[in-house]
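Why do we care about 3D structure at all? Because function follows from shape, and shape follows, mostly, from sequence. That is the central idea of this module. The next example makes it concrete: a single protein chain, its amino acid sequence, and then its structure expressed as tokens.
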Amino acid sequence: MKPRELIATAQIPGHTGELRCYRHDGNYEVYVDHAELMSSRVFGSEQMLAELALERLGHRRTPRVLVGGLGMGYTLARTLELVPEAAKVDVVELVPEIVQWNRELFGDLAGRPLEDRRTNLIVGDVREVLADGAGAYDCVLLDVDNGPDGLSKPSNDSIYNKVGLRSIHDALKQGGVLGVWSAGEDKAFEARLQRARFLVDQHAVRARRTKGPRRVIWIAMRKG
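And the structure:
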């Protein structure tokens, strides 16, 4: 059995925990404390986040999409596969080392989406980008900290609370779509989405598309 090798660590801004990147048998895993945050073995549901949201959005000739959370690049890569050549995709990542690891370690596994000319990388807090982006986006995809019940950054709660959802609503164009990936169900969050003037559908998916742990994706269309 091949050993799991610790190859890099990073600090998360605003959090005392440590990100640890491991390599094992040609794959990569990123942990925060003792919990797995992402793995190159398991990414089907992250791709489905893009698929479900963009299907709901429908065809737009020059869509602008925000992907909150670069991770290992799978959501970004699938987004780029589905949007037209005239699209612009902003990807926002809080941890600079995650960007570095994508460029130097595991970027090939997702097809190096950061190198796509439609990609605009923003290293910073997605909350601030959304707050400054009134009416800017056709679609917002959030795969931040395992969903509303976060692991790594307590202040991520402010993305998913009443104020955060209002900011997302305002950042979307009329008829724009929000997609949120979560490691599990959260009825309270779904109710907040509805109160924030979104038409909401919840999708139960599998981590590897057809097998693996259950995941939840909310697809919410801005109304009003």
